[in-house]
Specification:
7 strands, globular, about 30% helix, seven-stranded mixed beta sheet
């Protein structure tokens, strides 16, 4: 399996939104519900990253098909702009094949080389054990836990776990 990592393009927006809508159907993986993942939001995020050149938005392709996406967005206030928020999504049917690890490694390497990113933060649901295992394997540690923060439509809850990785030594 040959995975190619490349910079996102505006033409990818609708496909990325569709992939996340498919994943959001299964409770516990994403916080967003399918109806909340609109193509226009993806377009504006992509434009912002490409124009500002502050963050990094990558996609993983296998034989021309986009199979995953990873976004690092630096926080915008001056006192916290050294921190980037991570969103990592491996598309339906491609989980467990190492795609998340490849994307995450590229994003971590980019953050280390950026000169301005010192810390990567993310939120992951306690119900997403595969993602938690990947983040721990890649050096992230739990910094906090928001109990019963995510409420599913069937009235079950999951904790929202805050994890982080320092990419610059202090």
């Amino acid at each position: 399996m040959n995975i190619v990592i490349r910079q996102v393009t505006l033409a990818d927006a609708s496909l990325l939104a569709k992939a996340q809508r498919e994943i959001a159907i299964e409770p516990g993986l994403l916080v967003s519900r399918p109806t909340e993942l609109m193509d226009q939001k993806f377009e504006s995020t992509i434009l912002k990253v490409l124009q500002d050149k502050q963050g990094q938005y990558l996609v993983a392709e296998c034989e021309g098909e986009i199979v995953g996406q990873g976004l690092l967005e630096p926080l915008h206030l001056e006192a916290i702009c050294h921190v980037a928020h991570l969103t990592l999504v491996v598309h339906k049917g491609w989980q467990g094949k190492g795609i998340g690890k490849i994307l995450l490694k590229h994003l971590i390497d980019w953050a280390k080389a950026s000169g301005n990113i010192e810390k990567i933060e993310l939120h992951v649901r306690s119900s997403n054990s595969r993602a938690i295992a990947l983040y721990k394997k890649m050096g992230f540690h739990e910094e906090g836990r928001l109990k019963n923060r995510v409420k599913f439509q069937d009235r079950h809850y999951a904790d929202d776990i805050l994890m982080a990785l320092f990419v610059k030594k202090f």
